[in-house]
Amino acid sequence: MNKLLHNNTLFTLTLLGIATALAFLFFSFVSENTANIALLYIIAQILIARYTNGYLHGLFSSVFSVICINFFFTYPFFRLNFTLSGYPVTFIGMLIITLLTTATTSSLLSDGSILSDAEKSELLENIENDSSWRLNMVENLLSVTRLRSLPSLIIQTT
C-alpha cells in the first residue's frame, strides 16, 4: 500500500512537471493564447486519473494545475490573482473534469474484468467523447475569460 502510494505520487509529480515544462515551452512560442496551456494540464489530469488509484492524486493535480496556470501564465505573471473574471468557473470546471474522469476510470478499472471487449471499447469511446467535450468547454471558458479581460475595442464604420 505504501509503495503504491509512493509510485502514484511519483507518477503524479512527474506528469505535472512534464506538463509545466511543456506549458513553459508552448508559452515561450505563443504567449497570446494561454487557453491551450490548460489543455496540457487537462491531458496530464486525465493520465493521472487513469494510471493512479483513488481521487487524491487527481484532486491534487487539479488544484496544482489551476494554481500553476494562474501563477505562471496569466497576468500579472508570477503572482496569484484569483480575482480575474471567470476564473472561479475555470477552477470549478477543472475540478469537475478531474472528479468525473477519476470516477469513470476508477469504475472502469474495477469493472474491467467483468466487461466484454465490445463493452470496453464502447466505454472507452464514450469516455473519449466526454473528455473531448469537456476539453472544448474549458477551452471556451478560458477564451471567454481572456476576451473579458481585454480592453474593449471600438470599431468605427464610415
Question: What would a concise description of this structure say?
Answer:
The chain has 158 residues and is mainly alpha-helical. The chain has helices at residues 2-29, 35-51, 56-73, 87-111, 117-149. Helix 1 runs antiparallel to helix 2, helix 2 packs antiparallel against helix 3 (56-73) and helix 3 runs antiparallel to helix 4.
DSSP strand tally: 0
- What are the segments in which pLDDT stays under 50 over at least 5 consecutive residues? none
Helix-strand string: HHHHH
Q: Calculate the terminal CA-CA distance, rounded to whole Å.
A: 72 Å
Question: What does the overall shape look like?
Answer: globular
Q: How helical, in percent, are the residues?
A: over 70%
Question: Beta-strand percentage?
Answer: under 5%
Which structural class do the helices and strands define? mainly alpha
Q: So what's the oligomer here?
A: single chain
Number of helices: 5
Can you give the mean pLDDT? 80
Radius of gyration: 18 Å
Biggest beta sheet attributes: none
